[in-house]
Amino acid sequence: MEYIVTNCIVHGVLDAIQPNSYGLLMKNELIAVMLGTKEKFPKIWQPKELQPIQGQVAVNYFSLMADMQLGAMSKSQGRMKGYQLVTCRVFCVKNELRGKGIAAALLSASVTNAQKEGAEAFFFTAPNKASQQLASKINLKEYNYIKYESYSRDFPMYKKLEDKEEMCKGYLALFKPF
């Protein structure tokens, strides 16, 4: 996950991609983060950019994120090509503070800020049931999905993901119509 986090918070690590991340502090303590990126859609990954991705979880998660975006491109029949897209790549809230509306507030603010900063769309990948419920709670609309069972036939490493559910869902908020 280190590489994904680095991409989200360090400008210039990747070609044509910018960090777009937010944190929530309470009593000078970081309690929630949305680590994201802003780029022209679709981001075409260069081989040199993929070299640092190491570790089973990072490779699985990165591949899933990339495939979810490709699925969104396919579903939009290419109409999103060139859109400024903010992608939420990592989202987490401190364990003991979950269930208090913090995640919903931070994700809502992230979507609103993306629009204010000129993005034309916001994409949220929800790999587990909790993140899918969060997306529904703030009225994000499901756009695409990947069923883990069929995906793991082609990519056996997916069977080793910790939080795997029946499917990974992608949620798209469009600020500019196709």
Automatic annotation (TrEMBL):
In terms of InterPro entries, this protein maps to: Acyl_CoA_acyltransferase (IPR016181), GNAT_dom (IPR000182)
Q: Which residues form the N-acetyltransferase domain?
A: 90-135
In which domain of life is the source organism classified?
Eukaryota
Q: Which GO terms describe its molecular function?
A: acyltransferase activity, transferring groups other than amino-acyl groups
Task: Spell out the protein name for this chain.
Answer: N-acetyltransferase domain-containing protein
| Species per Swiss-Prot/TrEMBL record | Oikopleura dioica
